[in-house]
Design goal:
Structural class: mainly alpha
Number of helices: 11
Shape: globular
Number of domains: 1
Strand content: under 5%
Distance between the termini: 59 Å
Length: 308
């Protein structure tokens, strides 16, 4: 049995991740405050260095192929999470969430995303292991998703008033009109009320479920090793909050990134469908994914979006 498949390893890994999250919430961000660009960049650098260090550990203990698969999966998840960040920005702006409370929402949002994605990965991995033909359906789904993403453009649609989750909460849960500090629930006249902050949290969680429908198939297309899929997802998500605050003021600079992500999904889907006749080595696949990301960022810088 490989080390990473032992219960002890998973126990230590989960304890490590929970410890990092608690350290973040209870020590470094115990006091609600607005995350400025310098602090966000510092935390982003920390999470990237930590992720690459873990990638090096995978490379040394599991071999070059596993190391490249982990790095490719991490890059894909990190890149696709940029779309999440733009939607989060729209949600925060719509509900007028103060900057000092955004970190708390993202913290609980990331924690929920980790649990949901673990379930998706376990179910998806088990299905692909039992029914091989599903792999080709997965490839076709990724090609379709990439084309749909490219055609849709770089501005995601969001309509909170007609969002089914928000409408369900409004019908079945008393919700206050005003924020009450950073609290999700308050007591008023002996009754328990949800605050708009709780509605925002639920929207962030449900948004991540939608995005997971694209990102989880993408990484399962790279490798079906549950260890690589889950841990690369974890490290990509751990740095999501810091990256949000680092990119919040620069989102529109990377308006072509959306199209780069669309091409990456099409490429990964095509790689699966053509695996039998045109196998692509992992180093080349990593180079193509990295190249598409770099070109979309470069194009965004060279041809900036005109202000309307």
């Amino acid at each position: 049995m490989r080390m990473e498949n032992t219960p002890l390893f998973w126990l230590v890994f989960v304890a490590f991740v929970v410890g990092l999250l608690l350290l973040d919430l209870l020590v470094f961000n115990r006091k609600a405050h607005e995350i400025k660009l310098r602090e966000a960049l510092g935390w982003s650098a920390f999470w990237v260095v930590l992720s690459l260090s873990f990638n090096l550990l995978v490379y040394r203990t599991m071999g070059p192929q596993a190391g490249l698969q982990w790095l490719t999966g991490y890059l894909v998840e990190k890149a696709l999470s940029v779309d999440n960040l733009f939607v989060f920005l729209l949600i925060f702006n719509y509900f007028k969430v103060p900057g000092q409370y955004q970190h708390r929402i993202l913290f609980w949002g990331v924690l929920g995303a980790l649990i949901l994605r673990a379930v998706f990965i376990l179910i998806g991995g088990a299905l692909l292991a039992k029914f091989h033909f599903l792999l080709y359906l997965l490839g076709a789904f990724l090609v379709y998703t990439g084309i749909r993403m490219g055609v849709a453009g770089d501005t995601p649609e969001i309509d909170p008033e007609n969002n089914p989750v928000v409408r369900f909460l409004s019908r079945h849960l008393p919700i206050t009109r005003q924020l009450d500090g950073g609290r999700f629930f308050i007591r008023k006249d002996g009754l328990r009320f949800a605050t708009p902050l709780f509605v925002v949290l639920v929207m962030v969680e449900t948004t991540d479920v939608v995005f997971a429908a694209d990102s989880i198939p993408a990484i399962l297309a790279i490798t079906r090793d549950t260890f690589i899929v889950f841990t690369s997802n974890v490290f990509a998500l751990l740095g999501l909050r810091a990256m949000y605050f680092a990119l919040a003021s620069m989102m529109r600079l990377f308006h072509y990134l959306h199209y780069g992500l669309a091409l990456i999904l099409v490429f990964i889907g095509a790689k699966i469908l053509l695996e039998e006749v045109l196998p692509i080595a992992m180093p080349l696949a990593l180079g193509i994914v990295g190249g598409l990301l770099a070109l979309s960022v470069l194009a965004s810088v060279l041809w900036p979006k005109k202000s309307s």
